[in-house]
Hints:
By secondary structure, this protein is an alpha/beta fold. The chain is 33% helix and 20% strand. The chain starts with 17 loop residues before the first strand and ends with a helix.
Amino acid sequence: MQFFDDPIFKDINDTIPGPSILGIGGSPRKNGNTDALLEAVMDGAHTQEIAAQGVHLRDIQFQPCIGCEKCRKDHICRGHHDGMSLLYPDIIASKGIVLISPTHNYNITAWMKAFIDRLYCFYNFNKNRPSGWSSQLGNQGRKAVIVAVCEQNNREDMGFTLDAMRLPLEALGFDVVGELPVFNVFNKAKVKEETDVMERATELGAELARSISAS
């Protein structure tokens, strides 16, 4: 079977996503602060008896968007058959999404940027220039939480990390119901010592779960 023969790809605009959450970790470092925070958010979701799974982009073999524009006609990415092809069904089927990235040079990591760019296929474009657009994932009650992790201790040094996740998600039709900027952590899994931060991450998972159950 081809990657995109699954019926879930046939009419994404009319899809009713289920009450589940997909968590995306954008750190290249295994068992670090991002992984700990993703686990905490997923644990919070599980307290509400919502299906939630976490995925680490470093474990997925996928390529960045190559700008082939095939998705304008096909409405799904056919420029690559790779690990993202296998993630698309989970993205489409999950009403909730969590994006977590460390700050790399005032921005999200290259892994998270590549992931977000590969969501470009979910836009519908008209033939005008510049194109008008809508989202295949819009108006479906989708919700999101975003978390950014920074070695430094202020928002200025975190740069665009939160914006780089929030703005694309909002454009795609997600309601970002919670954000967590985490400062002054760098050493491996040091964030686990920050009780308030870990508790807030768990609370965000629970809040996200409740919001998708209510919508």
